[in-house]
Amino acid sequence: MRVHWSILLSILALAVLFSETPTVALAETEVEVQEEDDPDDDDELFADSPDELDDETEDEDDEEDDDVLGESPIEKAKREEEEANAVDEDLTPTQKKDRMSACLSVARIHFNRHEGDLKDTIDEIMNQHGVQTEQAIQFLQMGMIRNCYFYITPELMSDYQSSPAKFLEDDAKITAMLNTDPSSGPSGQMSPQQFELLEEILK
Questions:
Q1: Rounded to two decimals, what is the model's pTM?
Q2: What is the pLDDT of residues 33-83, one digit of tens each?
Q3: Which of 37, 67, 105, 162 is most buried by a 10 A CB count?
């Protein structure tokens, strides 16, 4: 079974969010430390040449331009949270809970059904993020829950509530829903409120 890239993106973001030692964050830190400890930086003890000063000024200007034109981490997080909350803003608390419960069931049945096909993906998560099998599986299932919660339509939700067993038997329907083009929905993870709802259901 081929894992859709939208699920892999969800896994990557979740790995950074939940891992005690996020790979992405550590990689960025290592680069910064290496730059600071570079032996060539000993030259900074002496006066810089005019050319070097000009180059440094240009680099700083470029970084400032990127900050102005780009999106700060805080702005990005706020935007992604707003996008996630927009998914269920018109639902009642009961409807939100039913939706999350359905997606938890969908993720579990889909994973159990395709666990053998997902072994390579699990191994890849373990290698890239330095986690154990159980945590890698959790990352993968969380990506499925996220995609289901964001992309399950009212029609699909109605089908599930009419007959959960029948709905869960339709592997093609579930796979298509989980592989929905991510450009049509939120770009980030579930919001804190949605994570809290999932935790409540899992208790």
A1: 0.67
A2: 334 444 444 443 334 444 544 555 555 555 444 444 588 999 999 999 999
A3: 105
Residue 104 identity (one-letter amino acid): L
Q: HSE on the CB side for 68, CA within 13 Å?
A: 6
SS3 content of the chain, % helix, strand, coil (to 5): 80, 0, 20
* Number of residues that make up the chain: 203
> Where do the H-state alpha helices sit in 116-191?
119-129, 133-151, 154-162, 164-169, 171-178
Question: What does the angle CA 88 – CA 91 – CA 92 come to, to the nearest 5 degrees?
Answer: 135
Q: Could you give the residue ranges of the DSSP H alpha helices within the chain?
A: 5-18, 23-37, 50-69, 73-87, 93-114, 119-129, 133-151, 154-162, 164-169, 171-178, 192-202
Read off the amino acid at residue 55. Answer: D
User: Which of 120, 93, 87 lies closest to 189, judged by CA?
Assistant: 87
Count of other CB atoms within 10 angstroms of residue 18: 14
Amino acid (1-letter code) at residue 135:
Q
